[in-house]
What does this fold into?
Amino acid sequence: MSGRALPLLFLNLGGEMLYILDQRLRAQSIPGEKARKDEWTDVDRKRVMNDIITTMFNKKFMEELFKPQELYSKKALRTVYDRLAHASIMRLNQASMDKLYDLMTMAFKYQVLLCPRPKDLLLITFNHLDAIKDFVHDAPGILNQVDETFRQLIEVYGCLSAGEFQLIRQTLLTFFQDMHIRVSIFLKDKVQNSNGRFVLPISGPVPWGTEVPGLIRIFNGNGDEIKRTEFTTGGNYVTPQREGSFELYGDRVLKLGTNMYSVSRPVETHVSGSSKNLTSHAKGNMIPNPLAEEELNFLARLLGGLEVNKPGGNETGFRLNLFTTDEEEEHAALTRPEELSYKVINIEATQEQAQLSRILGELEVAEPRAGSAAKGEDLLALMDAL
It folds into this structure.
């Protein structure tokens, strides 16, 4: 497993979350002069986006995120996004939060599967960050936070070998391998089957630096070409005209990671039968982890020690519904398999609990992460620093 996969996973999933929220907020916004107190306006939308992006690119959190480390568990990562989504005046019910996370994960999984070269994962990340910069183009302070993360990505990943990128891609695919949620956009575009598995294309541009398949060259012992044989391929391939830019600004060429919600389309999610069986089987064989609750809470607090913002004074939190109607949201909450729903676990981490968790963390972790302390100490140290 790669110790460099976590920043790419977090940033790309975060980018997909912002795409979805922006689309839904725009769809539910009312012109300011016509809006009631309990209705969204464009000012509210911008505030929500700015608050979430500010929290997401918190400097101390980014510093911790970029340290070499293993991926967090699915539940732990899901908890971080729950806290992140509620970093402003917006409130999501459990069913809408579940749907949001499903859309995020399936979109990025599809992008990882279609990535022409493992190194192009960086271009996908840059596409997400380019779009995020557009969201905050009129907020220089937040824009600088995103640019700083851009520079960190270039510095950390710009010198990695093709083999290291391949390991990162394999780590991400392992993380997503049991997730088969059906999404209406993918089903309608026929890039996803009814069982939730993606359909990979056999045509299109080949990766940069490679040739269109269809020719076999045979060389002798001296390295001289002595024979050529052509064969028929099963698809129509083309050579890309240029490589995408890996600089702070530039044409990424690759379209993976751009906003697929820029054109308003309904986005429904459905749990496939195979996914239900997998999760039920996993639940039945799960060994209870005495540190599970502490781990989830520590990770949720990584975002700059963030507590969910409570509207102050007479201000009320605005609820965002990712379903067409409230009835659909309620039905989704009732029919959602229990093992696929996540709850934020809030624990008051007193000094005694922190000390106990540190001791248990030292006993549980057999091998410290490269370049950093053991898992429990990492999280506690960051909490102390914040």
